[in-house]
Amino acid sequence: MLKYETEAMGEGAKAIAGVDEAGRGPLAGPVIAAAVILPDDFHLEGLTDSKQLTAKQRDKFFSVINSKARAVSWHAVSSATVDNINILAASFLAMKQAVEGLAVVADYILVDGNKAIAWDGPQKVIVKGDSLSLSIAAASVIAKVVRDRMMQEYATQYPEYGFEKHKGYGAKTHRLAIAKYGPCPIHRKTFRGVIEHLAPFEREKIKNGQMELEV
User: Fold this and answer.
1) What is the mean predicted confidence (pLDDT) over 158-177?
2) I need a surface site. Which of 80, 116, 119, 187 has the fewest CB within 10 A?
3) Mapping DSSP to helix (H, G, I), strand (E, B) and coil, where does residue 112 land?
4) CA–CA dist 32, 51 (Å, integer)
5) What predicted TM-score, i.e. pTM, was given to this entire model?
6) Which of 126, 106, 91, 119 is nearest to 21 (CA)?
7) Which fold has domain 3-151?
8) Distances 118 to 18, 49, 66, 166 between C-alpha atoms, Å
9) Domain with CATH 3.30.420.10 in the chain
10) What is the distance between the alpha carbons of residues 100 and 89, in angstroms, rounded to a whole number?
């Protein structure tokens, strides 16, 4: 889990940030990205891709990472912005903002995925990086926990959708709620499963690219 960090240090890097996102697939809510710079001697048994961890494990690791990391940053991009610029661009924007928000300036980043982000410094893109790099795994946990907690808060505002259970993903109960109540303000209106339930004038605005940008 430290192979890529070790290689970066061998190239002279002193502040290596792992970068990952959470929330590309849901029908509702923001996409969240996190960036984490770990100390050189960091070790946390069991830390890996957040999707492979239980909610209890993620909460525990979230606290440890925040207390021991050299720097932690996260950034949210709203569902409205996702609708305006598409989910891929929104994910890259969130990751860029997370890196730029670090209290310690990164001189090398490790990014989960298969495409580089818009960042001037050296970076390495790693497919399934959240299970291959400790720094990316840490960022994965931060992004996932932050997003899950946000969706739990949204559940109190929009209780009819059950966000506290499915976190905005396309569960059957969620799709049935959208069909019954219609989309709420945090639904991604350009996503299949949501757009079908919009009023005709809203669908026309989307078709004509007239959505209002909100960050």
Assistant:
1) 98
2) 116
3) strand
4) 14
5) 0.93
6) 91
7) Nucleotidyltransferase; domain 5 (3.30.420)
8) 15, 23, 25, 31
9) 3-151
10) 16
